[in-house]
Amino acid sequence: MMFEKKAIPKKSDGLSAWYNRVVLEAELADYGPVKGTMIFRPYGYAIWERIHTILDADIRAHGVENAYFPLFIPESFLQKEQQHVKGFSPELAVVTIGGGEELAERLIVRPTSETIMYHTYAKWIQSWRDLPLQINQWNNVVRWEKRAYLFLRTTEFLWQEGHTAHATHEEALACARWAMDMYTSFYRNVLALPGYVGTKSAAEKFAGADMTLTYETLMPEGKALQSCTSHDLGQNFSRPFAITFLDESGKTQYVWQTSWGLSTRSIGALLLAHGDDQGLRLPPRIAPVQVIILPIGEQAAVLTAAQQTAARLADAGIRAQVDVRDNERLGFKINKWELRGVPLRIEIGPREVNDGQATIVRRDTFAKETVGSEAVTARTEELLTAIQSNLHREAADFLETHTHTAITFDTFQHIMAGERGFILAPWCEDPACAEQIKAATKATVRCLPLGAAAVREPCVRCGSVARHRWYFAQAY
Amino acid sequence: MMFEKKAIPKKSDGLSAWYNRVVLEAELADYGPVKGTMIFRPYGYAIWERIHTILDADIRAHGVENAYFPLFIPESFLQKEQQHVKGFSPELAVVTIGGGEELAERLIVRPTSETIMYHTYAKWIQSWRDLPLQINQWNNVVRWEKRAYLFLRTTEFLWQEGHTAHATHEEALACARWAMDMYTSFYRNVLALPGYVGTKSAAEKFAGADMTLTYETLMPEGKALQSCTSHDLGQNFSRPFAITFLDESGKTQYVWQTSWGLSTRSIGALLLAHGDDQGLRLPPRIAPVQVIILPIGEQAAVLTAAQQTAARLADAGIRAQVDVRDNERLGFKINKWELRGVPLRIEIGPREVNDGQATIVRRDTFAKETVGSEAVTARTEELLTAIQSNLHREAADFLETHTHTAITFDTFQHIMAGERGFILAPWCEDPACAEQIKAATKATVRCLPLGAAAVREPCVRCGSVARHRWYFAQAY
Prior knowledge:
The structure is a homodimer.
Chain A lengths: L14 H11 L3 E3 L6 E3 L1 H20 L3 E2 L5 E3 H4 L3 H7 L4 E6 L2 E9 L4 H11 L8 E10 L13 E11 L2 H21 L6 E4 L11 E8 L5 E11 L9 E3 L5 E3 L1 E8 L1 H10 L16 E5 L4 H16 L4 E3 L7 H10 L4 E5 L1 H6 L1 E6 L5 E5 L3 H26 L1 E3 L3 H9 L4 E6 L3 H11 L2 E6 L7 E2 L6 E2 L1 E6 L3
Parallel strand pairs in A: 3-7, 15-16, 15-17, 20-21
Antiparallel strand pairs in A: 1-2, 4-6, 5-6, 7-8, 8-14, 9-10, 9-22, 10-11, 11-14, 12-13, 17-18, 18-19, 21-25, 22-25, 23-24
Helix pairs in contact in A: 2-6
């Protein structure tokens, strides 16, 4: 029957089958014709536009300016920083022909823009008065993938990348921390996604960084997702790219740098974390449509009431839409908008018009209530706030109940073989030891929590001295 | 001396020397390390962000949705439409290596997205209920250039590209016209750039279009600039890509399509057209900074007054900035902001604070006036409106005085050897004849003005029957 729901698999029956199906059915995205690529459909792209709007304001407020650097990077640039080229080489897309001719120097389609930006920073920066130089870009980058995992892992993705240069290491470090604070607040308050902030281990930090800060969230199957990063680049790039400045005493010095980025991967985290068996559940602050209004029947008065309600909500700054399609039955529409995760649904039929009322249904709890027409806007605002909090609370509960401590490797293995999640465990910081942990449990070192207490305990795996407890988890 | 102006060449002494220097000195852009590429510096990128904001609202208001399609197009896609591949082949950038391996099929870095989008449209469109499908993208595209002419001609540029599919040819045509109307209004009312709207000749239309609408502006050396285009694609793509729909009577039909785009080239037109010997003159509606406030001296009261003025202007929705740099003298600052084309300058010194006044200077006329502090906001609004009109009027006068009619080829040649500009002339529409006109005068067919009267006159060059008068000009 027309109004029947397209069957989507249960979320609990297998996360990726549920996820792929929901993303396609909700028309958030589609696969691109080249393996590993994706298409951001209007509904999915609208989420990215919301992210752009919110983060861009935060970035500007900090005095960072937007700019745009070229897509193509001469291959020789990448080779100037050894760790950097080593980290990125396996995933590069290379242009070898341009304007009908074989190119003398191959061009790399940017996987990130450190090298091409810093080549130019060297020209722009002369004296301490030119510092800090703080530039952000919203653009597309390419890191080769054989298979696309929509939003989460794709050959091309969209992101912002901030790149700053400072006179002192302290200033650079403060900037890297500011960026991570901004991201943390964005994840918690807008995406309703709590997570852990910490520093990456030496083996897992960004290729070219002295220190990488990460925000790690937890997905429903108990796997961690690296959700954004901020890097203290030290002078690793300023030395090979000769980015120097005359300090106030007239001495030539190398600048200290940071870079930090948040990508369309964040949309994947958002969808995976909050969805349920009916489909998506979008937190109101990020939802492109916060309220869907469904007129019931085809009476003119009903349609008018629906449009008036939408107009009043819009006046209050609420993103509301009326579904006026006349070839879908109510049940079909309800399922469609539940699938798409719109936080609130308002139903207005002849009875509601008659009684001067509207029925409001929450997407997160399916709680239904009837409200007088004049109270709809105020009640909608309350409910949107309540849904935002509720989704955050649910995610925070999940994170808390799935965060464990393990002192022995038996416990560690037991948890990873069962419900998984994060394990805080003493670790010796030897990469070989981490490799053994991974081989036995698939778990990797996620981060050292910021401000972690110093300890002196046996490493959970090898028994050597561990000076901190680190977060471990299986990861995407 | 520190406050001396960096000498820029006179605009009248040579347009491109003036242009390149001004664009670099005003910090709008820089050359990229790969030949043909450019960097959009924050001040130049801010102009693009203004364009984005304004056009995006117009595009959405028409019911077009934003999305994002992949950068990489399989080579075979381009070959499905013969005119299309022929038109774009010479300027393609080709990825032959991905993820460390030689690719089985070479990938084209998008020069435009018709083929990759329409491949997917075929999947999304099933019935007349799915139409019109109207999608827009803001992205980067690549068309190989050996040398960059900043903003005007670069290997990579930024643009928006709208792509629609309709049930009927009439609807598609109406959409192509709507897009050109939107662009025309944008050019005239925001960029203050009058121009001619018309259809391209068969030889000059978009590779794959049945009909191309163009907006042609006139630059100071009397050369035309194709400033944006909108295409009626007919069924040229829907047939090879098999984009069909079931119409209301259940019959399978091919869709009718349009595409239309406006790029960062528009910034080049803006800068070239309005600048003068002191540098840029930005129309207030597009200027990232509309008012620059210069505090004179270092008294605290002066700085406070400057900040208060900026706050009051900001409250009125005016983009105002205070230049607080303490290492530049007033004369240097004045030259700097004149060079950058900020429409109004407000000077506030001890005398102004004492008298409760401010001095306002127009960038377009250098007219200076003193206004009481309470009147600054209102007067600023008036002056911004006046500057917007004045720049448009100057450009309209220039266009009018540089538009000629020629019935004989002698007159035609005389004009093109002298002051140039547009020539409206009867033309037989034979491409070979246009080639001869070009060989003799460097002028090309720009467009057939919309609504041009039918004539029956001898072609300006060959004497064969001409049925319309077309615009000719030398062009970039």
